[in-house]
Design a protein that fits this description.
The protein has 467 residues and is of the alpha/beta class. The protein has 3 domains: 9-149 and 277-343, 3-Layer(bba) Sandwich (FAD/NAD(P)-binding domain), CATH 3.50.50.60; 162-273, FAD/NAD(P)-binding domain, CATH 3.50.50; 347-460, 2-Layer Sandwich (Enolase-like, domain 1), CATH 3.30.390. The chain has 14 helices and 24 strands. The radius of gyration is 24 Å and the shape is globular.
Length: 467
């Protein structure tokens, strides 16, 4: 949608096109605000939809099916022979999914009469956003510019041999070998994609474990499972440099605690050490908006120290999750409309879309021990779940943590089939201050993997049925 209001005035201008920005724009329009959204991309959806969440999940699904065809179908009595990879078609499907969804958001913008301004937005003055030679005014400006891959000193990205997550989504051939620098969510997901398609993948992580911040028991299970799938790990290891040749990349690595330098060679290196806020080109310093290491400082109502300027999503810190940004975007504009917008940060799930999926919510056991909280643990393995056994997907478990005195659910951690969907039941329980008994006394369809959640809740009370 082209700009339909050049040099115009708006109630709300949102800078940034990701889930936080476009959801905030739609909600603002619904509330009656004359709304514009500024983004550098022609297509809507930001990093998440164009080169992040959505294309990576499309490739995860396609690569999982390819892997299953080669290794998992015979157990079901289905013999298809060795599958043949058509990488061009697989990438084409991924691109088609992205295109369809971006068109869908464009339709929603048109439906809600939101002005889409293409270009790099700069807050040139309080109440003003400049995009190229044009300047727009607004009573409220919301910063939702998201984040970008964090660079690693000594490792220069070219998006061909040394890639970020963006380049890893568009490799034109399957590399014989790949090194993933960083054992977080993005690295493990994209590493899994290319391992399934035939690459030898090694994950180099500076910390002693993958998935930092997740429940320790889940991390141990995930490490074992991913190793069985063929991923190799060099933990407690730092990368100090990279040299590109015509045939590949040579990485210099050494123990994080210090020690002898080692060389690892790979066709492709994926740098996935985290993300940093994308705020340095907004002109924030010139208008006095306070930041901390690039993150925008806000109060409880998403307001910066400058009147009329707000911020949401990755740029304000916390969990860098699309759905967290969406909730903040909605809450922010509802507050601007005089409503009681609110985000419960204690009930925001995080999901790793490997196979099996990994989902985390609320406190970990490590968190509760450090805080001195008395708690109960309920666990249930998927191998004892009838549905998981029937479909042949039994890896992992459900774990629920509850307050020992009140039984209120404090956290949940799942590794297993459909973990990203199963966690939502516990999210709802936590949002309403529910207990493990509330979950345990709720009827669950049989046979279903959701019964594992019920059994874990029963286990918190010491009365699981199937173990």
């Amino acid at each position: 949608m082209a700009d339909s209001n050049p040099n115009g005035a708006f109630d709300v201008i949102i800078i940034g096109g990701g889930p936080g920005g476009y959801v905030a724009a739609i909600r603002a329009a619904q509330l009656g605000f004359k709304t514009a959204r500024v983004d550098m991309r022609e297509t809507l959806g930001g990093t998440c939809l164009n080169v992040g969440c959505i294309p990576s999940k499309a490739l995860l699904q396609s690569s999982h099916l390819f892997d299953e065809a080669g290794h998992g179908l015979e157990a079901h009595g289905v013999s298809v022979g060795a599958p043949k990879l058509d990488l061009k078609a697989m990438l084409g499907r991924k691109n088609s999914v992205v295109a369809d969804l971006t068109k869908g958001i464009a339709f929603l913008f048109k439906k809600n009469k939101i002005t889409h301004i293409v270009g790099a937005g700069v807050i040139s003055a309080v109440g003003q956003v400049s995009v190229g030679k044009d300047t727009y005014s607004a009573k409220h400006i919301i910063i939702a510019t998201g984040s970008e891959p964090a660079p690693l000193p000594g490792v220069e990205v070219d998006e061909k041999q040394i890639v970020t997550s963006t380049g890893a989504l568009d490799l034109t051939s399957v590399p014989k070998s790949m090194v993933v620098i960083g054992g977080g969510v993005i690295g493990l997901e994209l590493g899994s994609v290319w391992r399934r398609l035939g690459a030898e993948v090694t994950v180099v992580e500076f910390l002693p474990n993958i998935l930092p911040g997740m429940d320790g028991e889940v991390v141990k299970q995930a490490t074992r499972t991913l190793k069985k799938q063929g991923l190799k790990f060099k933990l407690g290891t730092k990368v100090t440099g990279a040299k590109k040749t015509k045939t590949g990349v040579s990485l210099s690595v050494e123990p994080a605690a210090g020690g002898d330098v080692e060389t690892i060679n790979a066709d492709v290196v994926l740098v996935s050490i985290g993300r940093r806020p994308f705020t340095d080109k907004l002109g924030l310093d010139k208008i006095g908006v306070e930041t901390d290491r690039g993150f925008v400082k806000i109060d409880a109502h998403f307001k910066t120290n400058v009147d009329g300027i707000y911020a949401i999503g990755d740029v304000v810190g916390g969990a860098m999750l699309a759905h967290k940004a969406e909730e903040e975007g909605i809450a922010c504009v509802e507050i601007l409309a005089g409503q009681a917008g609110h985000v419960n940060y204690g009930a925001i799930p995080g999901v790793v879309y490997t196979h099996p999926e990994i989902a985390a919510l609320g406190k970990t056991e490590e968190d509760l021990k450090a805080a001195g909280v008395d708690y109960t643990v309920g666990k249930f393995p998927f191998i004892a779940n009838s549905r998981a056994r029937a479909v042949g997907d039994t890896e992992g478990f459900v774990k629920i943590l509850a307050d020992a005195k009140t039984d209120r659910v404090l956290g949940a951690h799942i590794i297993g089939p459909g973990a990203g969907e199963l966690i939502q039941e516990v999210v709802l329980a936590m949002e309403f201050g529910g207990s493990s008994e509330d979950i345990a006394r709720t009827s669950h369809a049989h046979p279903g993997t959701s019964e594992a959640v019920k059994e874990a809740a029963l286990a918190c009370l010491g009365r699981a049925i199937y173990v």
